[in-house]
């Protein structure tokens, strides 16, 4: 069953399922240009998802073989998974921000053993217990990683510039945070239904109507720079709020209006979360201990193994922010390092 929607003004969307994931599906947008349809994101790499993409495109009057180009908001597999297959079918170019292209290149070139060793060391430094590390150490040398074969883009999306879409005005807005190279894409054309505001915004995972995107660390075994992804995310949010698009076309859930109100909700959410963490940090805690005490969508002991990595990286991203703001500090001489409210 093809599920498509016509958003007017030569923009349609179709749903590509994400297998075994509560998010359900990725919204892939089809933007008409003078040289053929261009896709914003492509969906998860899975035979069923490919069928859904093909059926959705057919319902939009086109096919994978007719796609002129693919614009990717960020490197995650629910967005970029099928890009390679589309390029194979049509010869379409694939465009992505340089920082996310680097992530793909690194993932393709790094041996799985190196990743497992890196992750085990990182989690140990964050205070993870030995029973959590054991499976990672055991996995060295035999497991494969998702995204290993993900397609290398052939064009860079340059922040602030218009993309090469004949007949359309689509400008890239760099919105790091969820990933280092996440971009939103601003369609600088009047809203087809005359809604007030400035054009429409393809927001990827940066701005979603009902959920907050995961903000972790930009994991890179070759880079020891202390980044501040949550700080990047909050800055990017404010920038998007100021754009004031008439409508937001996100990559999950559904389109919505009043982007500035949603931006404010998310800013408040993160400010509340940071304040809540400070209350926990009256006693020194490792990132792992902090993650155990944070509020998640279920109790810690029911969070599955893999999701605990994500939770800990989110705790670390918040700690980085607090340290950068001077509201928390590392306890000198602690090993693994603990943090306390300043
Ligand atoms: Zn994502
Ligand atoms: Zn996503």
TrEMBL record:
It comes from the Bacteria. InterPro entries: Metallo-B-lactamas, RibonucZ/Hydroxyglut_hydro, Sec-metab_biosynth-thioest, WH-like_DNA-bd_sf. Residues 25-252 form the Metallo-beta-lactamase domain. This is MBL fold metallo-hydrolase. It comes from Streptomyces caeni.
